[in-house]
Amino acid sequence: MNIPAKHTSIKHRATKHKAINHVLTKVSLLIGLMFSTGSMAQTVSGTIIDNQGNKISGAKVRILDSKQQVTTNKNGDFHFANAPDKSLELHITASGYAHINQHIALNDGANVAISLARSAIEVIDVKATPFHASVMEASIPVSVLSGEKLRQQQASTLGDTLEKQVGVHTNFHAGVASTPIIRGLSGPRVMITQNGLDVSDVSRVGPDHSVATEASTATQIEVLRGPATLFFGSGAIGGVVNVVDERVPTNNTPFGEFILEKNSVNNQKLAAFNVKNGTDSFAFYADGFWRESDDYRIPEPPKSAASNEHHNKVENSAEESNSLTLGASYLFDQGYVGLSAGKLKREYGIPGHTHGEEETHEDEHDHGEEAEQQVFADLEQNRYQLIGEYNFDDSLFSAVNFKASYTDYKHAEIEAGAVGTTFTNDTTELKVDLLHHPIMNWRGGISFHAKDTDVEAIGSEAFTPPSTQKMIALAMMQERHFDDVLVQFGARIERVTLDAKNVRLPHLEAHGHDETGEMETHDHGHEEETSELTRVFSVEQTFTPVTASLGVVWDFTEGYNVGASVSRSQRAPSASELLSFGPHIGTRSYEVGALFALNDHNEVTLNNQAIDLETANNIDISFRKTQGDVAVIVNAFYNQVDNYYYQVATGLFGSDGHDHHGHDHGGHSAGELPVYIFKSQDATLHGFEAQINWNINDEFSSSFFADYVRARLKNGGDLPRTPPLRFGTNFRYQLESFSAHLDITRYQEQDKVANLETSTSGYTLVDLGVSYQLPLLDHDITFYATAKNLTDEYAKVHSSFVKDIAPRQGRSLAVGLRAYF
Amino acid sequence: MKKTFKLSLIATLCSTLWLTGCGDAKTTINEKESEQPATDHDHDHGSGGDITIDSLGRLAISAPDSDQISVFDLDDSELVGQFSTTYAGSRITASAGYRYLVITNRENGHTGFIDGGLWREDHVAHLHDYEQAPATIDFHIDSSQPTHVVKHEGLMAIFNDGNADTSTNASVNLLTDENITAAKTDSEVITFDMNMHGVAEPRGDFILTTVRRDDATSTSSAKILPDQVAVYHKHGDEYEQDVIFDTTCPNLHGAAQSENFVAFGCGDGVFLAKDDGHDFDVSKIANLDNFDTRRVGSLYGHHSHNALIGVASARGTTPLLVTVDATKGAMSAIDWQPQTDAAPVSYGFSVDGDVFVILDNQGYLTLLKSHLHNGETEWEFASRVDFTQQDVSTMPDGQSFSLVMSQHADTAYISDPIANTIVAVDLADGDVTTALSLDFTPANISWLGIKNEEEHAH
Which one is the CATH code of B335-458: 3.10.20.880, 2.130.10.10, 2.60.40.1180, 2.30.130.10? Predict the structure, then answer.
């Protein structure tokens, strides 16, 4: 215990802990006003110093269970004139230091001295959970990408932006769409949220569907690894990625950021800004970006037979997007309430997604025709968010947080100049967290969550029938410190209904192929008319997933902790996993949902087996060294998933739903897709993540990381597209106005592959970046240059659906300017 | 009060949730009537499981000087929807795929849409027909003086004349039914640098459109009428001008397409552009000697043949009908044997293109059929149907019969503002039946529904 001698009355807990200082949901003012506010107050003041006694300016001091927060001045001093009249808990954060919680007894708050320990890993609080959480303090593993790091790593797609985060990989989709893979899980198991609210797109059902959010205007991106259904429900059984921005401003501190960048590999041009300003009671926010890129360059033409490309570019990988978001808040002593509206537009090519004449002979087409056969997506999303927070001083409840959103999403896939398929998603969501004052030293609250989602796909790729999903949930979470041990637990019960009025079971003219690629039977064309009826069903499903979790963090000695978290999470399978029936070009497969099954005669019929919840039983253990020049975080997990929904290759082929003009190639005819059917079986995923940061001296720092996941079915067999073992190192040199960093990442070969999947070779990526802060008056303007894939390595991403036709970008150089005001 | 309410809400929620049992999953599947296999004759696509609807379709009917549009189901003669348009006195027509009613208001620069509720989607693996209640949709287009709406093979071009008074230039919006469904906002594909009373003919990846030149250069006597034709070609997402033909077409008005030709009516003849797949060869057929002051100002064509019909007219004269045999490059007069005082009010091709009908103000529908004459195709009088028992002299002021051709059956629908009925004329046997009896006076009618693809395959 580090107890300053002059202040013996202060119990100093130099450990991190979680508290409920961040509340993500919004406030209903009406509910808030019914609680009285206290009138008694005390003064609390003091100084924040480091271990050597140096004063720390710019540290943030917050009184837990209230909204009061101050920042220390250049002498490290802070002052609360009007602190609640009771014993208090302060939460202190400062860049480069470990977070700390400090207990202050009633009327003992004058001239407090609080010392912070250095941390070699930047500690930033997560905003996604109503519990306070950070990389060093949480019982579940979290990480935050923000500030300059975020700017260095931001890409045009979310998966690519986050791929250097430990435990997170990308399903790289030719730079135009990608989604994060957390510990080997993705799709309907990883929830993407914007300020804690569902991003509401269709990126969970297709790897070629872009995530409708943007990194260049975000302030931080948070990753919760492992089950987070407690806070987010069914879609978060594998983890959560929360994109945070200040679109509903929480304060009126003036802020402005501008970015201009140009990248050589795809001639990408990016301009982005985000600004905030305000008056006493009002804060205003705006952000926007514009980006345009051409097809990207690769080191050499794809080596695969699946590709027709003969040049060093991935065709149809160009992108163009822009967005504008406006927001405003009303700020008052007890909280804030604000509204935002944003529009995002994105147009991108979908490589490997050619329709119609799948193979064209060079002598038969000119460039015009070729362009017409390429498929591109035209995405538009309108998002409205209402977010508020109201803090009470004296009552059972300390705060209520309120969040609501309406999102209207649409994306059209344009084939040969005409709309082939239109996907829409209309989502309305409401989240209310009601937090109580400590009861017998337990902090916590209850959370109410409701979401309505209407998803529809119309057109040639309408492989899932229109459906409506409604979810309501109630959750409770509590935490308490027992000396050096923090205990957290929570439970959530959810009701999910999924209604689809017209689920179709067409007679699938599927057939196998013999070894020579000839069709087994059928002397007629495989698309020949059949006289079979299409059966139609109305399907109503009700799921009641329940989640319970218990976590413990023990500060067993100063500067170290160990954590353990045990959870049992349930998930309702998604509409596409259950109801699909049709060709899905994005995954190059003919998808059949779990509602159906293959009988002995290779015919698809209704599944006689019950449709069950997927249940993940997860154990997470972490060890952390939190202070000093060396920081260490090691996480190990074991996740046993019952009824894991996955796709099984049937060996049959179905029509891809497009008009084709001849050409047999490979083992099957053009216009055919392998039929995959969703089944459920128990699966096990286990692995680890490790991070070591070493601040060698004030200028030099280095880090090392590694992650690994093994994902297999209980009855044998590996899950497909599981990222390989990865490790890497990072060196950083930092002067006052100059910095440089060198990242080296090694991806090992992945040979643990699923049936019919091919293994992928390993590769090493080297990135180098420099930045220089221009000496221009008081303005903070930084010039930067980043070179990626310096060795021009030909790198196929195992977790990508298009690994054979779209390897990673070749060597690239990006230069840009960043300005802060 | 509020607190109690809040708590009881939570209590209710808890009990509701727990009643169902934790960790439960319940699936209820009700089998509905199976979809009939389709009689899909399109062997290029095909595959089992077409879902088709056999419907006579729907009629959208406007009322004179009113903003009301009524939509009737022709299968059971029932009113299925009633709508107010944004502006009274708008013109109505069907969209290129006959799903939407297109409501243009020239004066107010507004084009709105009503979803007729009956449509077909080609899911490639199968056809899928949909039947829903008609509905208004928010999507609309604001443009300057939208006037001629031309449809061809799934594409619809709206020509906005622009306005010299406000220095607004002419433009063209191009929309498919899918674009309307998707509320495509950037449908304006061509903008000109002048206003004009023009027309655009969409054809695959091409749009043939009128071009107005400087008044000093223009060969038109009415300068607002264009005198040239240009081809625009689709490049990626945009239409770019390929060529402006040198051959002029003074006082251009009226246009139509046939199997291989796009025709424009000129003061001095008919301008023809022959589609050879990549570009267009142009030619011109001169006016007939008996035209006097008349000129072809309206043209009708059908995609199944190249025998177009032109209406040559001039103020103060009775119109002459001509066959424009585009293949032969020849024009010939049609004797449609009109009754006394009969003046045509509307024309149309049957869905299969075999019959051309002339609706006249005396209450007759004249049917023409084509014949070969010395190697030239000519349209000739075939039969006449007396479709109304009313005294046509009692026609309300400003009203007239109006005509629309069914795209489902060989039927012409005619509105009768004297009897307040809609009659259906069977073009095969001339039978007249009352399709709808109305409690209002019909003005214009449009047919909406699922086009019978079989008809034109013959």
Answer: 2.130.10.10
